Each structure stands twice: as C-alpha cells, then as structure tokens.
Prior knowledge:
By secondary structure, the chain is of the alpha/beta class.
Amino acid sequence: MDAEERRREILDTARRAGVVDVGKLAADLGVSKETVRRDLRVLEQHGLVRRTHGGAYPVESAGFETTLAFRTTMHVPEKSRIATAAADLLGDAETVFIDEGFTPQLIAEALPRDRPLTVITASLTTATGLATRDNTTVLLLGGRVRGGTMATVDHWATHMLSGFVIDLAFIGANGISRQYGLTTPDPAVSEVKAQVVRVSRRKVFSGVHTKFGAVSFCRFADVSDFETIVTDTGLPLTEAHRYSLLGPQIVRV
C-alpha cells in the first residue's frame, strides 16, 4: 500500500467511524505512529480531517456529509447540554426557527410547553416531534427532502422563508471558523440557512467544539451575524475569546 492508498484508507476509516486513533491505525496498517501522524497532517492540510490529541476526525465536505442517524450517536452528552443552554436564550421570542440536525432537534425538545410559540423548521423530524404540543404551531418548510438529514431544501423553502420575519433562529453548521464563517457541504442547504439569517432578528449558533476551525464547501454566514454561540467546554477558553472578539457572546457548557 503506497502513501496515497494509505491516506485514502485512513480517510475512509475516519468517515465510517467518526474518529480515528493514531495507535490503532498504525497497528491496522502495519506502519509506524509517526507515518500515521504524517498522513494525518497531509489530510488536514487538504481540509479532509481535523487532528486531535492522539487521533483525528473527518471534516464534512462537498463529497462527504454525515447523516442525521449518525449524528445522534456522536457527542450526545455535549449536544444535550448545548441544547438546554440554547433553549434558555428564548427570551420573549414568539416565532422561532429550528434548523435541521440533531442538536437543533434537541433544542426543539427543550423549548417551553407553557407558552404559545410558532416554530418554523425544515426538519421533518423536528416538525413531527412538536406537532402534538398544545401551545406550539408548527410551520414546515416545503421543498425537496434530503434523505440523509430528513430536511427540506430548494426554492420552495427559501421562497416560503422570504415572507417571514422571525424573532429568533437556532442555526447549525457543519463548520465554523473565524476566517470563513459558517459553512455547510450542500449549496441547497446553504441557501436555506442564508435566507434564515436574512429574515431573523436574532441568531444563535449551537454546535459541539469539533465544528470550530472546520471549513466546508458553502459559506452562508459570518460569525458576526450571531448574537450568541453555544458550544461545549471542549472549545478552549482562549479560542472562545477569539470568537467573542468578532461580536457574539460565547456560552460554554
């Protein structure tokens, strides 16, 4: 196996498992740990993985995106804490957008039941979960349904959004960086998110620490567009401070 084949195998493993360990890769591939580290450095330079202490995880790109089912298995305790903290930011909002994805789905579940709310969402899963609540009116955006995320996209969704003024939007992303802002692999998803940013008075980003510094294909917002970023304590304080200098309040839970 030459270097290119080995790196392809490492990348495939990372995308299947969600994370790879240097020691296990070295043993499985029959090479030294330093060779694996060198391969991971190359893959990171190409924007395909992000290295961690002792391993790496894949970056979602135009050619790779995790499914909603997979996301429900990764960093679940962190996502649950983030969702609770994000829902606490509701304030006096009466109309709320809930993005596609597992963390936004958890935010929807954490919204209060004792007050009237109108929730707009592209997520079929979130719409189904909220539809039976007595005090909640659910507006599901129309459009093409993406099987991997069970969410709607394309011009039907963006056109419907264009007629709204939304009090508060809970928005996710596949990557967030100080240089490139918020990104996602699919142009159709990017258009929906960008439209949400345009029509919402307040914007909150929620995502686990692994999304920070990651850059995907389609950029849809600047960090400065958001009043608050909610993440977990895996994001170092020093890095959180750098993001706060761009405008948003950073909440680490």
